[in-house]
Design a protein that fits this description.
alpha/beta, 9 helices, binds nickel (II) ion, globular
Length: 256
Amino acid sequence: MNFLYDTHAHLDDSMFDKDRDAVIHKIQNSNVGLLNNIAADMESSRFSIKLAEEYDFIYATVGVHPSDVLSMTNHDIDELRKLSKHPKVVAIGEIGLDYHYDDADPDLQKYWFREQLDLARDLNMPVVIHDRDSKGECLSILKEKNISRGVVHCFSGSAETAKEILKMGMHISFTGVVTFKNARRAIEALKVIPIERLLIETDSPYMAPEPFRGQRNDSSFVYRVAEKISEVKEIPLEDVIRITCENGMKLFGISK
Ligand code: NI
């Protein structure tokens, strides 16, 4: 067994509306053997499950992204609980805090972040965390809630922050951003993270790695993240592919 596991993709995104099946076939013909389709709102939670039912190698998460919590209700929490019982739902996410845009009130974000963390703990499921510009508040809430099973995705923080996340027991995931010329801070962080705690992802359709930067991204490009990890950590590429895949299977409870 040696294939890539793209642990974070958004195949439900409207950028794939015209050719979704063709893109999925392209991904299947690359060396990608597992893929998590990550939900960002209620609609994409349902869509992720639909994709997971249709394609053997696709798994789903359910959850509401911090930028989409404005209209969230308790009824949504009940529905997420129901959706999470589907055999191919492997995590609650992506959830967290995003203070980059001021379109969602921080207090509201924190409220629904805590509610969804409680849900994950109730269900004994790992979490997929989105943390953008939260100035440490996201990690504080994870600590407050005693969360130790999950992944901080699209990591671009410092080596110090990485160590804090590792201490909590969490995994850290990198996108194609590590292949960018200005990724010095992320590279420094990558150096201190043991390979056993690393995951790889595309966050497609966004974040296309070099030399595809600016194009629509898809999971067939995830090998570029593995190549960069191999280069920085001086670990053979086949080992990076195998170990990050095993890490993901273990965290998300997938046996294949
Ligand atoms: Ni995402």
